[in-house]
Structure formats: structure tokens, C-alpha cells
Design a protein that fits this description.
The protein is of the alpha+beta class and 267 residues long. The protein contains seven helices and ten strands.
Amino acid sequence: MKQFRIVFLITFAVLTLCGLSSGQTRTKTKAKTVRYTPATVATSAAPSTASGSSAEAPKYLVTVKLKKGGMVIGSFLRADNETVQIDLNGQNKAFRLNEVDSISFTPNQTATPKTALDVAVSQPATNAPAGPDPVISTGRNAYSALQKLSDAAQLGLPYGQYANLLIQVRPVISESLRTLPEGAVKADLAAALEAYTDAGQAWGAMQGSGVLLIATEPAATLAKKYSLKPAANALGQEDRLLIETAIPAIWTVATEHMNNLAGLLKL
């Protein structure tokens, strides 16, 4: 029923304009607007004569307004269940009905005004600037927090200050990891924090002696995880990690993830 009503409105608009253009003196006619939705019966601007032959169809100015904001003016040709077609400078232009907001008819039995032929499709209005990417903003906040640990490692701060920074930074990073979606930013952020934490754990365990035996934890796990080369004891046996080589090696891994984050976050 709805489709029939739409076809009726289109047909009525065309036939009404035919009657106005042939039965009245030439006066300015108010444009008739039909709101489009898909129809099931084709409608043409060229009605047949009583003998069955097609008479020369009067030209109709048609204004097609698109849902995206564009507008085209030309001569109406036909409309079917999928498209509306108009003549633009002798070229048949078809627009899908699901892209059309409305169409307005105006009779003109002489020539289509030049202004109508010269009208081009209007460019849709540009979208408003998008807001900040939540992944980028969250990632940058977390990166800034991790940068404190990176700076501490490069400056050679004492273990006590480094351990305090770990306590301050971990909740910030944990909250960021909770809200970030799975992806490269989240993965590098988690890996960097893990490396800085492992360095702190190893450093704490080495306080006083400066070494960790490979046969004990966390040395066994860290040596495998970060491919740490053990040092030799007095007998030439490679059974220990040294504080001066193991900690910088773990920090190097953390720095690699920090560099990855800088690229991902466009820093």
C-alpha cells in the first residue's frame, strides 16, 4: 500500500504538470516536491497519445536533493523502483532512491534553463572534526608514567628511588591496560611495564651481594626470559647473574617497547 501511494504521488506530480503546461498560459508554476522511498512501478515523463505512439514529452525541471546533502538540477526522465533518472547536458544520470531525500518538479516546455544545466552535484558537508582517539590519549598518559622509570634507569638513580617509582607507576599503567582494547599499544605497554618490574625484582634480590645464582629464583626465570648470559664463578662455572650486566639488559628490552610505543602513539 505504501509503495502504491509513492508511485501515485510521483505520477500525479508529472501528470499535473503536463496539464498545467498544455492547458494554461505560461505562468510561473510552483515546484511540487515528492519525498522518495522505493517504488515498484516505473514512471516516465513521456505520456503516450491516444493512438499509442509516444508524443514529445514536455521538459520538466527536476531538483533532486540527496540525503548526504548534495543537489542536482536537470530534466526529469523517469523513475522506477530503484532509481530516478534525469538529463544533465544530454547525459542520463541515475540516482538510487535510497540516496534521494526529495525531488521537486517544475514544468518548462521550451528549453531547460542554462542555470539548470550548469549545476553540478553539491559536495556533502564535511564531518565535524573527530574527537581525540581514546587509544592514543590513554596510551600517551601511560607512556608518560613509564617515562619516569625510563629516566630513572638512564640517570642511574639508587634502587630505593627506582622501587618507589615502580610503586607509583604500576596503578596508573594497570588502569590504562584495563581500559585499552587489545592491540599493539596495549601489548607494548604491558611488556614495557613487565620489563621494568622484572628489573626492579632482580635489582632488589641482588642488594648486598650484587649477584643472583642461576639455580635460584628469580634468576632462573629472568635468564631464560631475557636471554641473559650468566657470568662465571672463580672455578669458571657460569652459575650467576651480575647486577652490572643483568639489570641493563632487562632495561634494554623495556626501552625497545618504549620506542615501539612512541611510534604507535606518534610521539
